[in-house]
UniProtKB/TrEMBL annotation:
The lineage of its organism: Eukaryota, Fungi, Dikarya, Ascomycota, Pezizomycotina. Transmembrane segments: none annotated. Residues 1-10, 50-60 have a biased composition (Polar residues). The active site is at 191, 217, 345. The keyword Hydrolase applies. Residues 37-49 have a biased composition (Low complexity). This is Protein phosphatase methylesterase 1. It comes from Baudoinia panamericana (strain UAMH 10762) (Angels' share fungus).
Amino acid sequence: MSNLLRQSLNGAPPPPRPRPLPLSSSALSDLDEHSSSDSSTSSVDSSASVNTLRPSSREQSAPPGHWTNYFSQELYLDQEDERQKARYHVYLTPPTDVQKGPLFICHHGAGASGLSFAVFAKHICQRLPGAGILSLEARAHGSTVTDIETGNQITDFSLATLTSDALAMITLTQHHLSWPTLPPSILIGHSLGGAIATQLAVDYALGHALLGYTVIDVVEGSALEALAHMKTYLSSRPTTFNTVDEAITWHTRTRTIRHAESAHVSVPSLLIQQPTSGGKFTWRTDLAATSPWWEEWFHGMSAKFLAGRGAKELILAGTDRLDRELMIGQMQGKFQLVVIPEAGHFVQEDVPERVAGLLVEFFKRNDRSALVLPPKVSELLARGEKV
């Protein structure tokens, strides 16, 4: 999609992640103005460990934009095998009732971070108290995967590898929290994350726990067309920022992100400070390094989206069009389509409350625990009722 290139890939290479910095009063003014697969195939082994960071009640209140205002836990999930060493990074608010859920599992787009779902997560919990949110971060976007022998980061951004990483994060989170089973879950993927969520659904990776999946602002046909302009887009955006405030202002003024709070929360996580360049900030993710896999991410996505198990929802910004395969599928009632014309490519950041409302409704329509089956004929006869 055209927006995929102009707005999508806001770069982001790996923990420890710098904490979001409070904005200056001038930056705040600018913002106001612009206002499978099972677990055995995910290479999980007994050496996996988890480091959990939780806010202390004795600490001072977190500044605006800090992750603790949106999630209850930040997890670093360590996993090692004979070939690689991974440290996965996720944000989590567990569901109150694991048996009932729901757990909304979110995956960001290329160049973004788990905090692109932060404001969305806040609105989910306001609308559906007790719901859980798990926001994953891909390798080189907050998670790191290194070669066990050399210690160098493994440069593999294939869809299969990114999907395996996502499943590993979900499985490790389940093990860490000692959930006997995965809660009833909704997969949510934005852009590249939509391709990963779709692949998880096609692979039946979450088994019966998956209620459905929602793909945000990515359609195979327009995404593949847009890739031709990707390198031009990457060369046209700034390579460095003097301050975090400057980066936030750039995102809002270019309308890459159209919601002030969303930009304040997510943009700092896209950057890393470089002491060797006078303390300037650069993109955390080298998106050019992912270019060999761009076409593979989206090729065949429409067919997989329609074939995956579970309820399906597609949320698009106003400039996107369905390709022929999806148009036929929509006419056949195979998925729900929602178009939000006021949003840019980062739909869940531009209109987080609207998207949260759509996802809560999507869950309620597909909540199996809410199904009420009619009584059996034998039961009616036993009660002496006419049939």
